[in-house]
């Protein structure tokens, strides 16, 4: 029973770490943001040029990653240069940036935790067992992720809304398509695709961890058997 609890906790922690890394890799990927926005044809509705889409994507990625201090840029709409975001949208982006700051802290904390556990296992001569446990945890994380995907796909709008309710202490995320350009450029389908891309990248990381933890020690065992 205790081994089952430890295995489940390991799978959850490894999955959380993979998702944190993956969601940041998507949010900080300006090229991905621009490509997905252009696929949805939302810039055409706003009268926004492709060049401005890429500029906005670069600004957003830089702002969320902490490289840039300003989320807003000027774009050309209907022949006039205007600020893309209004005051409410700028304030919401401040909140979003705070979430990503927390995500970076959580990522570093989890990485440090796994590193310290690995160092402890190495000193006790149990590094192979620790890496094997991480590999099994990664496989368990993939299974949990698959279950969550099946659940969320049934009603993405519901879970997307609940995420906002739980993550933000205000209602700035409730944007109005009639007055707010951000929700027109990045509608819900964009975030559904981004969520799928996040899960895909997280799964890739978990597979690499699973293989990376098992293969080296299988090779060692083979050499020992030959000797």
Features:
mainly alpha, two-stranded antiparallel sheet, 2 strands, elongated, single chain, 227 residues, disordered C terminus, 78% helix
Q: Count all strands and give the number.
A: 2
Percent of residues in β-strands: under 5%
The order of strands across the largest sheet is: 1-2
Biggest β-sheet: count, sense, barrel? 2 strands, antiparallel
What is the structure about, briefly put?
By secondary structure, the protein is mainly alpha-helical. It has one domain. The chain contains nine helices and two strands; from the N terminus they run ααααββααααα.
Tell me about this structure.
The structure is a single chain. The chain has 227 residues and is mostly helical. It has one domain (2-226). Helix content is 78%, strand content 4%. The protein contains nine helices and two strands. It has helices at 2-27, 30-40, 42-46, 50-65, 87-123, 127-153, 156-167, 181-185, 188-226; strands at residues 74-77, 80-83. Strands 1-2 form a two-stranded antiparallel ribbon. β1 (74-77) and β2 (80-83) form a beta hairpin. α1 (2-27) packs across α9 and α5 packs antiparallel against α6 (127-153). The radius of gyration is 21 Å and the shape is elongated. The two termini are 37 Å apart.
Question: Any chance you could write out the topology, listing elements then pairs?
Answer:
Elements: H1 2-27, H2 30-40, H3 42-46, H4 50-65, E1 74-77, E2 80-83, H5 87-123, H6 127-153, H7 156-167, H8 181-185, H9 188-226
Antiparallel strand pairs: 1-2
């Amino acid at each position: 029973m205790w081994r089952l609890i430890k295995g489940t906790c390991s799978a959850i922690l490894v999955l959380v770490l993979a998702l944190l890394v993956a969601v940041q890799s998507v949010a900080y990927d300006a090229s991905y943001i621009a490509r997905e926005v252009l696929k949805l044809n939302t810039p055409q509705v706003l009268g926004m040029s492709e060049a401005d889409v890429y500029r906005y994507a670069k600004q957003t990625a830089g702002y969320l990653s902490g490289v840039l201090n300003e989320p807003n840029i000027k774009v050309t709409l209907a022949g006039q240069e205007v600020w893309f975001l209004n005051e409410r949208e700028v304030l919401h982006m401040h909140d979003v940036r705070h979430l990503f700051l927390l995500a970076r802290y959580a990522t570093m904390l989890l990485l440090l935790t796994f590193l310290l556990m690995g160092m402890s296992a190495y000193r006790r001569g149990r590094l192979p067992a620790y890496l094997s446990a991480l590999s099994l945890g990664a496989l368990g994380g993939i299974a949990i992720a698959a279950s969550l995907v099946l659940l969320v796909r049934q009603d993405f709008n519901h879970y997307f809304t609940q995420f906002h309710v739980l993550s933000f202490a205000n209602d700035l995320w409730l944007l109005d398509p009639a007055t707010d350009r951000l929700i027109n450029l990045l509608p819900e389908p964009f975030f559904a695709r981004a969520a799928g891309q996040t899960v895909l990248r997280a799964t890739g990381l978990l597979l690499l961890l699973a293989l990376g933890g098992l293969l080296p020690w299988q090779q060692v065992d083979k050499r020992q058997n030959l000797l």
